[in-house]
Amino acid sequence: MSQTSRKIVLGVTGSIAACKSVELARLLAGAGHDLRVIQTDAARRFVGEAALGAVSGHPVAGRLFDNTSEPVFAHIELARADLLLVAPATANTIAKMAAGMADNLLLATYLAAECPVVVCPAMNHHMWHHPAVKQNVKLLMQRGVTIIPPDAGELACGETGDGRLPEPEAIFCRIQQLLGEEIVGDLAGLRVLVTAGGTREPIDAVRFISNKSSGKMGFAIAEAACMRGAAVTLIAANCSLPRRAGIRYVDVSTAAELRAALEADVDACDVLIMAAAVSDYMVSGKQTMGKLERKSKINLQLVETGDIVSSLERNNTSGLKVGFAAEYGGDKLERARRKLRRKQLDMIVFNDISRSDIGFESDDNEITILTGDGKDVHVGKTSKAECAHRILDLVAAKGRGQG
Ligand code: C5P
Fold first, then answer.
1. How far apart are the first and last CA of the chain?
2. Helix or strand or coil: residue 201?
3. In the chain, what are the domain boundaries?
4. Which residue in 303, 313, 314 sits closest to 279, CA to CA?
5. Which of 92, 211, 315, 316 is an active site residue?
6. Are 140 and 100 in contact (CB under 8 A)?
7. Do 165 and 153 form a contact (C-beta atoms < 8 A)?
8. Does a cis peptide bond (omega within 30 degrees of 0) precede residue 88?
9. Residue 402 gets which letter from DSSP?
10. What is the bridge-based pairing of β-strands 364-370 and 347-352?
11. Of 100, 119, 186, 402, which is most buried by a Cβ count within 10 Å?
């Protein structure tokens, strides 16, 4: 994948996320880089030296004064790298880096290194938001260290918040970008704009009209496109899903905000994938910003939000447009086909929302991709990640003029 082999030192510290470092090491070594791994003592409790040694192709470096396996100047030798990556980085290692301590091989290597340094913190969300950790991270950033912030989601401790180590593919993509490497994927060079989630139309300050979309399908598409080398922007309507390094996120809530965000970005994209479930109606007039009092009857007048994808003002008319059709009841595939034409899309992804085992809020989906040329592609029930790749296979083929 990589054009040039670089010397990369991967420092693994004692977080439960250390188990992800094997996959990260495999990606970096697989891209042709000369990879050396340093483990702290605490990291050895979470991930085996044998696994990291095997994927990196070199014995794992361990202790400062371990003369049997490493020369006394191991840290100086290791510091002559093109990039030092610490992933996962615990609060403890971050604090020691900020303080300039050197009581293990990784810290001594960091102090001796003149190359770019990238740190991927991973810890409990309360720890991540502790003022001491924040200050240490800020200090490292001021000294030129690149921080890849943790993702939000369920943490190993069972709590939910930000603190998860980003997925290895996302860290790998970011490292390749930092090294100036072209990420050679079949979507490299394409700018992909994805919408995800469900918009909310306020009734008052606390109530709204919305739908069951979780955003999982759109997030899966954005992540898959990023892995395949695209520059990805994701417009997220009310999604509380983990975020990945390497993707640009724009948060919106209402259909009007989603339209404005799209209008701002659409001319700079080559592919637009509208996976968001946009509310078709909003409450007419100005909403009371307080809380409506309970009455025996309330009349809400609803007006159409207007179809965004078909009325989007865009100057860049060469781009591909992919829509979604979530359909219910008889004649559903035909209705999706009519939508493809009416909305002037290049592709529409149909899914059957009468089934409860797929679609909204589920991790799985079953889709039929209609391309308007009669060559429908059916993808049987599988993960949303796999569905995303099948949609992108067609996007890549159309981009090459084969679709
Ligand atoms: O007509 P329907 O809502 O089924 O169309 C779905 C497709 O149209 C999706 O791609 C959705 O993102 C888009 N859409 C839109 N503006 C709306 C409603 C849906 O762009 N107001």
1. 25
2. strand
3. 7-178, 191-399
4. 303
5. 211
6. no
7. no
8. yes
9. -
10. antiparallel
11. 119
The structure's pTM equals 0.64
Query: What is the C-alpha to C-alpha distance for residues 52 and 59, in angstroms, rounded to an integer?
Result: 8
Ligand 1 centroid distance, CA of 286 (Å): 24
* Cα–Cα distance, 403 to 398 (Å, whole number): 4
Pocket test for ligand 1, best of 308, 320, 350 (most atoms within 8 A of CB): 308
Residue 269: both structure tokens together: 């994209």
pLDDT in tens, 250-291: 999 999 999 999 999 999 999 999 999 999 999 998 766 788
Q: What architecture (CATH level 2) is domain 191-399?
A: 3-Layer(aba) Sandwich (3.40)
Q: Let me know if 365 is a catalytic residue.
A: no
- DSSP code per residue over 331-352: THHHHHHHHHHHTT-SEEEEEE
Region 234-244 average pLDDT: 92
> How many angstroms separate the CA atoms of 78 and 63, rounded?
12
CB 41 within 8 A of CB 114: no
Q: Tokens 């409860």 — which residue?
A: 356
Task: Judge: domain 7-178, CATH 3.40.50.970.
Answer: no
